[in-house]
Amino acid sequence: MRLHDLKPRPGSRHRRKRLGQGESSGHGKTSGRGGKGQTARSGSSIRIGFEGGQMPLIRRIPKRGFNNKAFAIRYIPVNLESLNKFDDGATVDETALRSIGLANGTGKRIKILGTGELTRKLKVTAHAFSASARTKIEKLGGACQLVVAPVAEKAQEKAAAKKPAKAKPAKTE
Q1: Which CATH fold would you assign to the domain 74-157?
Q2: Contact predicate 56/50, CB 8 Å
């Protein structure tokens, strides 16, 4: 097989739809835009959900409930077995995990899970540990150190800064 023998798979390439090329083309006259009206004009675009000025369905239906998903704390999971890539006595933190590709993704917090067996004594620094991971690390003489997330720090600072409300003196007449 040579370069000149290569060709695309059958059906993978399509001809361009040529509009306005006469009635018999099947795409003539209105060029696939239907009859007259707003959508037949150039530059026309109606936002999704617009119903011509009628109260849209999404606004007609009553809204109930609340979803906390946006406020959920998401962790990047790292299994204990994968920590065996580090040398004995090493300090394992977020930057070390990311550098060897164990903690990929946009998540900002890391949780060490207890899947697999650990064979090295490590000092592990993470945002959360499962109970089994903590016991396995400490059983080998390692250490688990929790990192306080920046959001949690701000909440603690706010709580500390908040002063207790002073009681108003009672009015005497």
Answers
A1: Ribosomal Protein L15; Chain: K; domain 2 (3.100.10)
A2: yes
